[in-house]
Each structure stands twice: as structure tokens, then as C-alpha cells.
Write a structure and sequence with these properties.
Length: about 325
């Protein structure tokens, strides 16, 4: 042993330092062998491996399931969704490896948050909200009969620490309706003669999901399926961003006068007033108003003339 130590000293301090780890292992090995009894060499090897290589922290998950952190199917942390007013919408939140965690839906408005659902339960007093779970992992928040106030920021949260979130930004589109005459000119009042054909066009735009439910009404009577009057035709064309619907009423009579309304189900509508003239002209219908204006003008001239005569006398 003396000769060994002398040899190490001759090699210099650097060689000694490099051998320190090896000496520590040998010393540990000797202690273990002298202080413990092992059934075989495999147990000894396992112990040494544990002492030398295994981590000492106790925070490692004990099961494979605990090692998996929940995550969303979607690659992006948010999605933009555009829906038409009056429709129903399902907000999707697909969570993988949820384990014992809980999914919640909240609505954000600035710094304020409104809890809509927690787990399988809905916590909003608004009856239009519904929580649906679709296998294997889709936690859906359904909102029925959307209105303009439903637009905004919705958030799906998983109760990890800290929580992970997935956001849906909901935009509500309100369709725009416009009635024109046969020339394509927007009108609010339209005049026809008895025996002519009433022709009106209704243009519907800003409709993400065009539908066939376009209804024409004369006052309170629906014209789409009216067979009692006869001579009524409705033709609707679906366009890329909406629809165009044309109304034809043949052999117009004075009884066909009144308000005509074009509506997209119960979501939006617009109207025009139709006047069917029996030998009159539109100017004649306004004749009474013109006479009143004429009388006022004449009275003003007379008063002015009388004031001039008074000044000259």
C-alpha cells in the first residue's frame, strides 16, 4: 500500500484527483459488502446501480397514466368561428388524456369571466346553453338561437396546474336584405297599374350558410304557397354569399296594394309598399298634398302683397 501511495505521489496531484471517484466506489462497495447480506450478486448490482445512477427526487410519477399530461387535439390555441344570427352552434373542445382532470367552459369579457359549465353540469341560467359530451374526447358547448350579444370570447379550460386553455372567438353575422324593382332600383314605394305584373326582387347578403327559407308576405298572408289568389310565383336562387328571390304577381288588382315583406325565416326582413292604381297616376295620388302646398303659397303671396300696399299707403 505504501508503494502504491508513493507511486501516486510521483504521478502528481492531478492523477490523484482523477482516481478519487474510483476510490469512492471501491469504498462504498466494501461498506455494502461488510454491512449487508445479499441473496445473490444481482441484488448487489441493483443496489449499486441505484446508489450511483438513479435520481434521488421523489416527484417522479408512480404510474404511466400520471406521466401523461392532458392536451388538446387542435394544433392552434384558438379558433375563429362565424355563425349566422338565429342559428345553433356547437363549440368543440377535444381533450386527450384527461385522466382525473375536469373540463370547464367560461365566457370572457375583458377581465371578467362567466362560468358556463363545469364537468358535465351547466352553471348558466341561460337555457340556451347545453353541455354535450361526444366520445371519445369532445366536450361540446351548444348555444341555441344565437343573437348579437352572443358574439365574443369563449374558453375551454382543463384543471391542470396551471390550467391549459383553448379559445373560440365567435362572430355573429346579421343578414342584410334589400328589395328592388324589376330594374334593380331599391324602392320603398312602388306604383303599378291595374292589370300589370308586380315584380319585386329581394337580395339577401352576409349569409354564411344560405338557405331556402325565404318568405314573401302580402300584409300577413304568405305568398310562397298561396294558391287561392293564383298568378303568384316565387323563384329563389342561392348565391355564394346569400340569395336572390323574385316575386311575380300577375294581373295586379287594387286589392293587391299594401305592404310586401321579404324575410329570412324569423331572422331579418325588409318591406316595400305597393300601390295599384285604377286609371290614376302617382302624381294624382299626391294631388291633395300638392293643393295644400299651393294654397299655402298663394296665401303667402297675398300676405306679402298686402304688406307692400300697407307700406306704400
Amino acid at each position: 500500500m505504501y508503494n502504491t501511495w508513493k507511486t501516486l505521489n510521483d504521478c502528481g496531484p492531478l492523477a490523484v484527483m482523477e482516481l478519487v471517484p474510483l476510490l469512492a466506489v471501491i469504498l462504498l462497495y466494501a461498506v455494502v459488502v461488510n454491512k449487508a447480506t445479499f441473496e445473490n450478486d444481482g441484488n448487489l448490482e441493483a443496489l449499486l446501480n441505484h446508489v450511483l445512477w438513479e435520481p434521488t427526487t421523489s416527484s417522479t410519477p408512480t404510474t404511466e397514466e400520471e406521466k401523461v399530461v392532458p392536451f388538446f387535439d387542435e394544433t392552434a390555441p384558438y379558433v375563429n368561428l362565424t355563425v349566422q344570427i338565429g342559428a345553433n352552434v356547437d363549440l368543440h373542445c377535444k381533450v386527450n388524456h384527461l385522466n382525473e382532470k375536469t373540463v370547464s367552459w367560461v365566457r370572457r369579457a375583458g377581465e371578467k369571466m362567466q362560468l358556463l359549465s363545469f364537468g358535465h353540469h351547466v352553471y348558466s341560467t341561460d337555457q340556451r346553453y347545453e353541455l354535450l359530451f361526444k366520445d371519445p374526447n369532445d366536450w361540446q358547448l351548444r348555444i341555441s338561437y344565437l343573437n348579437e350579444r352572443d358574439a365574443g370570447h369563449y374558453e375551454c379550460q382543463v384543471s391542470t396546474h396551471p390550467p391549459i386553455t383553448f379559445s373560440v372567438y365567435l362572430t355573429i353575422i346579421v343578414p342584410q336584405l334589400e328589395i328592388t324593382d324589376e330594374r334593380g332600383v331599391q324602392v320603398k314605394d312602388k306604383f303599378y297599374y291595374v292589370g300589370s305584373t308586380i315584380e319585386l326582387k329581394c337580395y339577401i347578403t352576409k349569409v354564411p350558410q344560405p338557405s331556402q327559407f325565404i318568405v314573401w308576405r302580402h300584409e300577413s298572408t304568405s305568398l310562397n304557397y298561396d294558391t287561392s289568389r293564383g298568378g303568384i310565383s316565387v323563384k329563389t336562387d342561392i348565391l355564394s354569399n346569400g340569395a336572390k328571390s323574385r316575386l311575380f304577381v300577375a294581373n295586379a288588382q287594387t286589392s293587391d296594394s299594401g305592404k310586401y315583406t321579404c324575410s329570412l325565416t324569423d331572422i331579418a326582413s325588409t318591406s316595400v309598399t305597393v300601390h295599384v292604381l285604377n286609371g290614376e297616376t302617382p302624381a294624382a295620388m299626391q294631388h291633395g298634398g300638392s293643393n295644400r302646398c299651393g294654397r299655402l303659397h298663394s296665401l303667402w303671396v297675398m300676405i306679402t302683397f298686402a304688406w307692400i300696399l300697407f307700406r306704400l299707403s
